[in-house]
Amino acid sequence: MRDPISLISDLDGLHTPVRLSGEDIRAIFRPEGKDMTDKLLTELQQAVPLAMTSLDLSSKPRKPGLIIVDIVNGFATVGAGNLAPPTENPQVSRMVDEADRLARDFKERDFPILAFLDSHQPGKAELPYPPHCEIGTGEEDFVPELLWLEETASATLVRKDCINGFIGAYQSNGTNALLDWLNVNQISDVLAVGICTDICVMDMVLTLLSARNHGMAPALREVHVYDQGCATFDLPRAVAEDLNLGAAAAHPQAPTHHMGLYFMAARGALLVDKVLV
After folding, report:
1. Which of 6, 114, 230, 249 could pair covalently with 240 via S-S, beta carbons 3.0-4.6 A apart?
2. What's the predicted TM-score (pTM) here?
3. Measured between alpha carbons, how far is 101 from 96 in angstroms, rounded to an integer?
């Protein structure tokens, strides 16, 4: 096995794809820095704790809607692309399982579901990220566990080509597929799950909260974010430096997941750790 540093070709910033073998990936994604990451998470949990509640969607009159953000191969299937997990990742696997469970519960109750699927035109960059989820690669498709949603009448699928699903939901005729879904179904409570907690999920949730406060979805009362139904990617500092991305590109999974939840809650989202449908 080669030295991890020698495995990396010139990345040309973040925009040139790098293809590594499974053996090479295991060499690079080693557990260095875990103590530092664990310490950071502990300090975050103490300094900015999260308030979690349970959500019982059958306990009182509600019109709930489930929003699934970008649980596609390119982000959640091992080895599927530049931004997919290189090896099995417990947080990502848990997110997929919980999203599947909730989606099936929502289907059983005939509650509306909206799923965003990150989908980009080949060669059209989404800076600062390398090419990902390009149409025709399969990265832009649901993970296998959620493919059944394509045949589900209560599910609305929205392909987006930007980080923020609210913005990506704007259509060529000026309408917004997310707002239309909320208003046609008179949804009072949104439950959000998906990937990445601190990127696409957070951007959509923060914009949706502003839209609610601006009266753009009159029936919407609360936006809930399910902790275990969300995940983000893991890029420890040592790996970022090995990849010549620089220390500032570090993105340790557990702390950044916590930070994403914190910022959504700070803007008015309700965090939940248990969902009953």
Report:
1. 249
2. 0.86
3. 9
What does the block give as tokens for 146? 């959620």
Q: Do 229 and 99 meet the contact criterion of CB atoms below 8 Å apart?
A: yes
Could you tell me the two tokens for 213?
Answer: 């406060």
What Rg value do the Cα atoms of the chain yield, rounded? 19
CA trace torsion 190, 194, 199, 202 (10° rounding): 20
* 236 CB-side CA count, 13 A: 15
The full set of domain ranges for the chain reads 58-276
Sign of CA dihedral 127, 267, 210, 229: positive
- The predicted-structure confidence for 37-80, as pLDDT tens digits, reads as follows 899 999 999 999 999 999 998 876 789 999 999 999 999 999 99
What class does CATH assign to 58-276? alpha beta
Q: How many CA atoms lie less than 13 Å away from 23 in the CB half-sphere?
A: 3
Instruction: Note the residue count of the chain.
Output: 277
Q: Tell me how many degrees the CA angle 33-225-116 measures, rounded to the nearest 5.
A: 95
Closest to 273 (Cα-Cα) out of 230, 227, 232: 227
Return the residue matching tokens 């890029």: 235
